[in-house]
Amino acid sequence: MKDQCFIWETEDSTLFYDPQETVRFRIEEEHWFDQNPSGPSDKDDGIKTSPYTITASMEDAGLGPCLWWDGDDE
Asked: What does the pLDDT look like over 19-73, one tens digit per residue?
């Protein structure tokens, strides 16, 4: 079985972190989408939108996996 991890490649190095690791990130944008209920007579066009989405970034000092900055596992 192959290890599953995230890979973050920078100009200087390649950094790895596991999916269950705690990360720090900055919220860049929030998007709210009204979710009107569809009844049995409404046509379902197959396009589903999440009611709430965020765009986030870990591109700044102190952001990213806590292990990189704290030096210990949580």
From this structure: 888 889 999 999 998 877 766 666 666 677 788 999 999 888 888 888 877 765 4
Which residues, 6+ apart, have CB-to-CB distance to 16 below 8 Å? 5, 6, 7, 8
Condensed to tens digits (0 to 9), the pLDDT of residues 9-28 reads 878 888 888 888 888 999 99
Residue whose C-alpha is closest to residue 53's, from 25, 37, 73, 33: 33
Q: Which two tokens stand for residue 27?
A: 């919220």
pTM beyond 0.70, yes or no: no
Q: Locate tokens 């991890």: which residue?
A: 5
Question: Cβ(15)–Cβ(58) under 8 Å?
Answer: no
* Residue 69 CB burial class (10 angstroms; 0-12, 13-18, ≥19): exposed
